Amino acid sequence: MNTNRLLNDGNRMDLSKRVVNLLEKDEEFLCKWLHKCQDEPWSLETSNGYVNLGTAESSLCHDILTAKINEIDFFKLDPSMLRYFKFHGTQSCRESTSKFVEKYFKPSEKIDPENLIILAGSTAVFDLLAHIIADPGEYFMCATPYYSRIADDVYERSLVRTIHVPLEVNEGINGELTARMNVQWFEESYNESISQGKTIRAIVVVNPSNPLGIVHCKDDLLSIVEFAIRKNLYVIFDEVYALSIYRDGKDEFCSILSHLNSFPQQSNLIWLWGLSKDLCNAGFRFSVFYSKDQNILKMAKTLCFSGCVPPVIQHLTEKLLTDHEWLDNVYFPRNRGALRKNCEIVEEWLNKLKIPYCTPNSGMFVFVNFAEV
């Protein structure tokens, strides 16, 4: 029996069946177009270069951030940084991160450092969680539109698929768009999927929203959690834009951590955050997730060695997260002010062109309706 597999171009491929579809599909954005934008950027001198409108990466505060990091005398390494370490995060870094979370996310209870897992970016978090809580061919539910990389993060290695639940979008008399998560639509989508023989394991919520640039209504979020607990589903709350809220909006942001005491089954909740968005630092590859499910934590500590963050990066991150005075008085005011200023520039043009949009107040997004353009 011939076991050799061939690609469409005729090349022999003796790789796993898991990667057949991945190799034959178009190159993923981050592997192709991001690099093209970096290698051939647009400028006044190179007008045929590329402008990247597809990556949620902010450089608005790179000047003050690099200046701050350069103040850290990190070349004086402690010998312990040259040795193997706790792959789920050094004790010191997890303790500092727990204090940071308690200060800025206002949880309803103390954050135990033993319930934190530090990994190399949110992609690593989603990849690991998909591997732990779902089998190949099972599903995560996501309110759409959503950050498209999530679907790749959970599928590329763990073969977990996503079910899209549309947001309820309405257009007001003045053309302004509003969007919300409707728990009834989640229930309907869940029931339809179950009737088709699909197994759903989790719901993913990004709040503040990428790509809407808004904060989701607290009552809607709590209804989603109650529904998930009723169906014995995990809810993964991605709050990577929580500290990038630059003005008041229709709804006030309230971290899901501030409602922990409201839920009888806290083990259903998984919370994550990272440096890439709120701290304009995608290069450090530092994210953290919080869970009280001891089985998830046990397996994460077992499997995280392939996605761990080097001690040097943890050391630098710890220095940033513990300097609350600099964060409160320098970094956050500057970042939020810059986000607000750029948002107002975009809104001015959208209003001038009479293009409907959802008024944003967080992150680096504006949700626009180009249907009539």
Automatic annotation (TrEMBL):
Query: Which ranges carry the Aminotransferase class I/classII large domain?
Result: 60-371
Could you list this entry's UniProt keywords, alphabetically sorted.
Pyridoxal phosphate
Show the Pfam families listed in the entry. Aminotran_1_2
Any single GO molecular-function term of the entry would be: pyridoxal phosphate binding
Where do transmembrane segments lie in this chain?
none
Q: Which domain of life is it from?
A: Eukaryota
Q: Which InterPro entries match?
A: Aminotransferase_I/II_large, Ethylene_sulfur-biosynth, PyrdxlP-dep_Trfase, PyrdxlP-dep_Trfase_major, PyrdxlP-dep_Trfase_small
**Gene3D superfamilies per record:** Aspartate Aminotransferase, domain 1 (3.90.1150.10), Type I PLP-dependent aspartate aminotransferase-like (Major domain) (3.40.640.10)
Q: SUPFAM superfamilies attached here?
A: PLP-dependent transferases (SSF53383)
Q: What is this protein called?
A: Aminotransferase class I/classII domain-containing protein
Q: Report the source organism.
A: Romanomermis culicivorax
